[in-house]
Amino acid sequence: MDFTININNKSLVASRGETILEVMNRNGIRVPTLCHIKNALPTGACRMCVVEDNKTGKLITSCSFPAEPGMSILTHSPRVVESRKTIIELLLSNHPDDCLYCVRNKNCELQDLSSELHVTERRIRGIKNKANLDLSSASIIRDPEKCILCGRCVYVCEEVMGVACIDFINRGNKSIIGTAFHQGLNTSSCINCGQCIMVCPTGALTEKNHFAQIQEALSNPAKRVVVQYAPSITVSMAEELGMEPGVDINGILNAALRKVGFDHIFDSSFSADLTIMEESAELIHRVQNGGVLPMITSCCPGWVKYAEEFAPDFIPNLSSCKSPQQMMGAIIKSHFAEQENLKPEEIYSVSIMPCTAKKFEAQREEMTREGISDVDAVLTTRELARFLKLFGVDMFNIKPELVDSPLGFRSTAGKLFGASGGVMEAAIRTAYRTLTGKEMVEFQVPALRGFEGRKETKINIDGLELGVAVVNGMTNAKKLLDEIRSGKNDVHFIEIMACPGGCIGGGGQHIGTSDEQLRARMQTLYRIDETERIKVSHKNPEIVDLYKEFLGEPLGHKSHELLHTHYHQREVVK
Amino acid sequence: MTLVQHVLHKYPAVGRDNLIPILQEIQTAEGYLSKKSILEVGRYLDIPASKIFGVATFYNQFRFEPFGVNHVQVCRGTACHVLGSSTVLQELEKHLKVKAGQTTRDGQFSIEVVACIGACGLAPVICVNGEFHAKVTAQSIKEIVDSYKTKGE
Ligand code: SF4
Ligand code: SF4
Ligand code: SF4
Ligand code: FES
Ligand code: FES
B63 in a domain, yes or no? Predict the structure, then answer.
């Protein structure tokens, strides 16, 4: 039911149930918000979004107040503006004046708001926040001094990720965001997904940075420094570089990485193809030999840690395949090292990932051989953009170059890993071929595409009906696992990605990525899949060669040694 | 059956409604909320540990460390406040090197801040192991607690 309300002396249409904020946003009236999260129940905590109710003279929070017939609202009256300004001044009064030393400098909502509201002098002086940095996690750094208590991280961690390892602790002016018992994040149930970083308006949450180690390796003549980049990287860097969303920077990235001084450049989409070879073989093996089903993908280290902590009963369901990052790492320090006549320790292996959890994964004990990590350092998309600046690479004036070969060529199936549903599509294509000896007539599986938190369908492989499900966002995964626990038995293969939309929405991506930008990234991946010729992992010529020359066959002896692993229940504070 | 289990069994195993009464009972029984008990409550009610810790730290009544051999209650009621209980507390915290709500490393002393303990005529008042000490000053507080230290040995 629609009615009109009056905003800034203009009549606007509103529908029942809409908040004032929603009506304003639809009509191009921008009012700042801090604690507000789209689609979440409003908390009304920050009062940044106040507007003036012209009839009562009251200031009300537009994010939580429903629009009502006959309302008359002022969004920028002097009182309103003054009140917003005071809120910012109060937030600044105990905030460390650290902007010049802050990762979020020039990309901080607190900075933006204080500039928008013309805060130009310090009218309110308070005692500066004092708290210790939490450096314990392999992925996430928490700096509670910079926290403005908006609560967005708490919401995402609990409602989207189903983890809830952080919450409001204490009360009043002693309030902080913290873990249970004030312990380090590393002992908590945090799955390192980085989604909290994505919503944090300030520098209170950032990723653990590996710049120094990488720079040192790059300037060490005794080290061969190699780099790989994840499937989603080339389609999700545009925003960081100031380009149109969805642009595929592809060859430019290779050129840039060479400029920085990396000796070899590999594409993790190649090892995604490798993952598909192993994983589809594993699936078929399980189906044909009465193995544990449903099999669940294990390329997302956020999900893997979640399983170890919250769903240990599903560990036998996890595919034993390492993730593409780790497969590439293992191949680099074995086969590649051999070919280049290098010892594994002479290679410094960097990966560029959309993901903070990959930093955690790289340092897992299971991902080392004889004390040497397969991957030595991980940069997120955001960090890469900063890294390239540091080396003075001008991404607008650079000629595209090819990735190194071998270990660089990819099929479009491997590239699809970047979006939720991609691993599944890629695996189905190869499993179909292995089981039937024929290629699928239509490669695309529309039912597994798009942004839905959960997608399900049946794939008919010559009479064998394979039930498949794809979920992203851990709360969606949790629901599916619960259904399976209580008897759902029509799925045989599940893809789980921790982050909404899959890795294109990963916790290491551009901060402030909108839904439209995510869609653009996804569309680009689908377009690549449509236009390029080699659409299946098993036809990637370099994959074929790798098996011929080195690995033998999927699930073979070498594969087991290098490309597979096992996971165990993990005791954490939860 | 552990003490915590005993408390838990009195309540239905769902819902957050009973969280506070459960925590209160455990604290009454054990003197404080141990990490172990909080985790156990969390598992029972299916509430993340961070949430329970968040709720518990919201209220002043809960403590997270066991009492010391000697428990020092510092009154911060109005009368005591007017006569300087805040400096007394500060001195005490400095002297024992722990804050109110905490227990010294050697387990000898714990400090608790309490509201008026009904002895306003003697303000500022502290109460150690149930014994009242009247008209405490920033100087005398050290001697008072030190006298307990020797007693303890
Ligand atoms: S990284 Fe993920 S799991 Fe860890 S605190 Fe942030 S949102 Fe929660
Ligand atoms: S850490 Fe960031 S997201 Fe979390 S409450 Fe603080 S400012 Fe908000
Ligand atoms: S979905 Fe992708 S980006 Fe997110 S945690 Fe998993 S692997 Fe990382
Ligand atoms: S955005 Fe409305 S109260 Fe915070
Ligand atoms: S105020 Fe301290 S005893 Fe009453």
Answer: no
